[in-house]
Each structure stands twice: as structure tokens, then as C-alpha cells.
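Dissemination and training. As part of the outreach component of the grant, students in the summer workshop were shown how a complex can be specified as a set of sequence lines and then modelled as a single object. The example used during the hands-on session is reproduced here so that future cohorts can follow it. Participants entered these lines:
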Amino acid sequence: MFRSSLTLRLTLAFTLLVAITSALVSVSLYRSLYAELVWRDNQTLVNRGAQLRQLLLDGAEPQALPLYFNRMMDTRLDVLRIDRPGRGTVVEVNQAGVAIPGMAPVPAGTPPSARLLHHWRTAHGEQVAGLALRGSDQVGDVTISVARVSTDRDRVLARYRQNSLIISLVAILLAGIASPLLIRRSLRAIATLSQQTARTDSRQLASPLALETLPAELLPLGQSLNVMRQRLAEDFSRLTQFADDLAHELRTPVNILLGQNQVMLQRPRSPAEYQALLGSNIEELEHLTRLIENILFLSRADHRNVALNPQRIDLARFIGDVADFLEPLAEERELRVEVSATGEVEADKLLLQRVLTNLMTNALRHAPEGDRILIRAEPVAHGVTITVANRGAPIDHPEKIFTRFWRGDDARHSPGTGLGLAMSQAIATLHRGQLGLSHENGWNRFTLWLPRS
Amino acid sequence: MKVLLIEDNDKTRQWLIKGLREAGITIDAVADGRDGLHLALEHDYGLIILDIMLPGMDGWQVLQTLRTAKATPVLCLTARDAVNDRVRGLELGADDYLVKPFSFAELLARVRALLRRHAVSTTTITIADLELDAVRHRVTRSGDSISLTPQEFSLLWFLASRAGEILPRTLLASEVWGINFDSETNVVDVAIRRLRRKIDDPYPLKLVETVRGMGYRLNQAGE
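and obtained this result:
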């Protein structure tokens, strides 16, 4: 599988950027240099033509002009010719051997300008600029032609082109070599972070990763990793605690089973004794079965792996049914169950039965004998609440009461697995609801809030 | 009607065979899914008890193949209480399921229910000197009219309609009160105690029997 490399991608991007930049810079500098050089050459030619015309007008001898001319310019590239109309060429300096085409001369008295220049190419392809001017000397009218071959300029430009190409290539090469090194260097922080993360095991979860050395860009990643570690550490310690508690819970029934069976086998017994033992064994095993079921349920609820089967539930009828079911328990303790319920809720009926049975069983167990328990269900904003209340002393550690295996002072003597309230709360959470406990005027009140579907 | 048991764990198979035979049920048992499927297709069983976690051909495959040819009732035994398993089992045509660890009383009650699926329903039951009338909700014992609450009547009716069978507490809670989970309370025992006070205590012949570790049974006359 091809895994795209960050270094490779960034290097390619940087190199491309350098290439484009140097190309743009070279081309634009070249163009302005070219324009500048052409402008200067043209200006020189125009000035020279004007000067020569003035010299002749001032009475200079045409034959004497090459003398000035030699001093003023480079005879290998510059051309000067003076013609007298009808009498041929008077003076010619043309070492370059440029053929001068017929140029319409600038009339006498008109100042020459670059716009009036003629441009053509020699047989070798070199560019030539030229200008013809009408003037006069002491003898009569003359035509002055000046021209210049651009060999020099072309050489300068060619050298410039070559240099810029070399410099650009060097820059691109440098970018190509240096970028990966620099990028790798910057990414070293990621490698460090990965190593630290890879080395993490349960014992180090609680200590956060060192963030001081991280560059600003990696700080959010480092912080998220630390938040994750923190959460995992909490979950992990909860899990460990749960496993400890579970082992402890299992120890009691297993100990009973082991002990009573061994004692029974010490000597022969009557069938009635064996039957009693088996009955007792079954009770312990049923307790263990419930424990297993409940723990599985809690573990699946933790991972939201419980498929809810929501249906419309008429609360008055639903609570009435559960109260009917538990009525024998109430009667046993001479308790009155007072139900006042209205409204509907959409919930998993079986799970809601569990919650209500659990809360009511608790209330029936803890209410003073001969008293009453109150069950109330009513619509509230965004949902419904079901409250189950019984008279009783405030519960110590109300925050711990929903913890798995937590039992109050009557501790190990109360029946059940010690998971009932934890399960009830898990079921409330699965329904995106809440279960809470409050104490008011001598009443302990469990309130289940469920959102309106 | 014969029952076919497909279960690979030797100990589990042994106690299931023993328990069901002693309850008067004729049973064939195999440890392998393929053999089980072969037998199931060959013979007409009244019920198949099928373990899902089988080596080789697993329970799902057995069930799926069986359903292409036969409609024999199937009771699935599964070790995992995952919801997906239940849904899958019911989709594939399982008639009932039990999650391990399950109680034998629970299994036996369900096996009997599945075997008797097409039993005719009656409106009156007579057991010894106890007479029940479902239409008028009337109970008499030795000619005395006994007044029961609706719940007590449902409980007694259920016990009587399956007289002679041991009925586990969870089944009673589910059938009589619609409470479909193990509620960790002794509410069924208390309800039975109240029922006994009305229909058993005043008479010399006790009909409602506690079977320790299993549940309750309404004894038929002469037992």
C-alpha cells in the first residue's frame, strides 16, 4: 500500500514554490533590463544623429566627422554615412558591414526621436536600429544616416539569462535538499509524542504527557491526548475497583457452597439432609446467576450495547400493575401503597419495570412498618417524572448509593446483589434520563426523570 | 412426543437427559450439529433443544437449514445474552430461547409449554375437591365458595392449568403479573403464602407444594 509521506508532499510543494518564484523574478527582471537597454541604445542613437546634424550646420567638415565619431562610439558596432543628394556618399564608417536600407529621412528642423527609428536585421540575424536625418552643411543639403548593431546588448542579455537560469536551478536544488531535513526536524516532536503514547500502559495513564517542549501546532493534540489519558485512567480505575468488588461478592456464595458441601460429605446423612443441602446450594447458585446477569447488563449498558425496545406506556396502568405485583410485600409489612399517576412515556417496558420494581422494593423494605409509600408520576417540562418516596432517616453518602455493590449500614444482611440502584441508574441513562435521590421533611424520595421520547 | 437435544458439553447433556427423562419426556441426544440436523430431518420430533455454541456446524446453521424443510419447534440455548443473538434467533425461526446459566425448572416448564402448544383451552378445571371456573371467576373447595382477588385467581388458575408440573417463580411472575425478569424479591412466595391461607390451610389435603430450589407445584389428586 502506498502511504503518502508528509515530508515528500511538503518538499515537492516547497520546491515547486521556489521554482515558480525564481522563474517569475528572473523573467520580470530580464524584461525590465531588456527594455532599459533598448531604451538607452535608442536614446544614444537619436542624440548622436541630432548632434551630428548640429555639427554640420555649425560648419563642420563632413570629412572631419569620423574623427569625432571614432571617439564618441564603438566603430565595430556603429555605422555612420553622410550622403549628398545626387552626388553620392561623402563619408562612410561601417566596419560591421551593415547594409543600410533606404530610410525616409527626418526633415531638417524636426528634432529626431526614438519613435522615428528604423529597425531591421542583418544577414546574421542581429538586430539593427537606424535613423536618417536631413541636414545641411556649407556646401548644401546632406542626409546623415546613423545605425547600431545590437551584438553587445544581446551578449549582455544572454549572459543575464544564463546566470538567472543557474541561480534558479541552484535555489530549486537547495529547496529540494533542505526542505526534507527541516521538515523532519520539525516533525521530530510528533515522533516523541508517539513514542510516549506507545509506551503508555495502565500504570502511566494517570501521569500526563509533558507538553512544554511541544510546538504550538502540536499543543492541541498533546492536550487531547492528556484528556483521553485522564478519562481512560478514571475508567480503568473504576473497572479495577469493579473487578475487586466482584471478586469479593463472588467469594461469599462460593465459600458457602464449598463449605457446606464438604461438611455434608464428612459423614453419611439422611436423604432429607441431602435435599436440604441441594436446596440451599440452588439458592446460592441462583444468587450467582442473578449477579452474572446483572453484571453483564451493566457492562453492556456502559458500552451502550443494549437495544431498547421503546413503546408507549400509560403510566397509571403501568404503575398499577407493578404495585399489584408487589402488593403482597406491602401487605406483609402492613404498608399502604398510594399511587397517583397521569401521563404517558415512551420507554422500554421491561427495563422500566425493573427500575420501578427496584425503587418500590427498596421503599417497601425501608419504610417504617405500618406506614405508607407514595408513588407519583406526572408530566413535567420535556418529559415525565416518577417519584417513589418512603419515610425514613436521611441516607448517609447519598452520592454513593448508585455505586455498584455499595450497601448502606445494613450492609451484607440485605437481600439482592447490591446492583439494583446501579442498574436503575444505568437504565435511566440508556433512556437519556436521570435518577436522583433527595431527602425532605423525613421522606426519602427517588426521582426518575425520562425525556419525552 | 420425542424431544431432540443437540448439546456438545458432556456434563450439560448428561444432566439435561437425566432431568428430562425423569420428568417423563422421551429424548434423543447428540453432541454434534451435523448429526443433530440429520436426525431432525429424518424423524418427526415434538421439540428440538438446540445449543447455539456448537463446534463445526453451529446452532444458527442447524436452525437455518432445518427451517428450509421443517417447522419443528426449536428452543435455543445460548451462553451469550447479547441482544443480537436473540433477534437473530427469532428471525431464523427459533420458538424460544434460554440464556445460560438457566434453571432446570425454567427449562422444563418451557419444554412442556412448547410440547403442548396446540392444547385445547378449557374454562373449568377440577383437581381433587378444588373446582375453578374461569368464566365466573369462581373457586370452590369441598363445596365451600372461596373468594380470591383477581391476582390470586390468575395465580391459582395458572398452577391448576399446569397441575403436576413444577413452575419456577420467574415463570409465575411472568405469566401471572407480566413481570418478565428475575425481580430478586420474594413476592411470589408471599403471594403463594396468601393463596395457601385461603385454599389449603383450612383443608387436610394440601394441594400447593413447594419444591425447594425449583418452584411450586399444584398436586393432582392421588399424588
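Helices of chain A lie at 6-57, 65-72, 151-199, 219-265, 271-302, 315-332, 349-366, 420-430. Students were then asked to discuss how this feature might be tested experimentally.
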